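User: Quick sanity check before I run a bigger batch. Here is a single chain. Can you write out its predicted 3D structure?
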Amino acid sequence: MNPDDLILLTGRNDRRVMDAAREVTQLSDTRARMEGRVLDVTDTDAVARLADELRTRHGGVDVVISNAVARVLPEESQAARADEFIDVSNTATHAILRSFGPVLRPGGRLLVVASSLGTLGHLDPRLHRLFDGASLDQVEYAVESWRSRIHHKTAEEAGWPRWLNVPSKVAQVAAVRAVAGERREQDLATGTLVASVCPGMVDTATSRPWFGDYSHAQSPAQAAHAVLDLVFAEHVDPALYGELIRFGEALPWHAGTPLVEQDRLLTP
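Assistant: Done. Predicted structure follows.
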């Protein structure tokens, strides 16, 4: 990268965003311009305004990495935190895809950081029809139906698991697949990549409370390579386009089994 390139670091906390931008700017090998920007990705209008601003000022964007997460602890009620979790993981992902997809320049990268739990098989088979081959509008409808059932305490009888992370990740991957399906031919012709990424187990304050064995966990810096390898890859592998990518390989969309035992360990 060079001094004419602009990298935006975004987040909800003004101080943390500015401190991060300052820290990266001061690194000896940083050449691009760094700019911190306060952005709440659950504010869909704010996301749209930022995308429009970048289109107007710079003619579009080359790389978009969607990596927002809502922290939920094991002892907390999943249902009580559902709105915040769904807004951050799903409503925001839909907004990023809708707003930044159209301003992504040829040869660009639009990557949503997800999880290996995002494959369809981790959901009850009764729910597969909601996401398999769905459009983005249909994914959005399924997510809001799930949210409504949580509020009305009918989610479990319909097959939705208590653990919010499973449906939210499946819906994230389904949303990416929906958008990629519409763009595939044109994007592959121009070397553009739209995909979701699972960087593997990462040792963070958000994930640590959920796992007992961290012997194979990566630091955030190590996990970033899984994303950056895709950003800087010279060519786009058609087998990876639109898929959930883990360690350079596409995870089968229909893989996985419902995590029934895990649900029993969670706070209702």
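The beta strands are 6-11, 33-38, 61-66, 104-113, 193-198, 244-246, 249-251.

User: Great, the batch can go ahead then.
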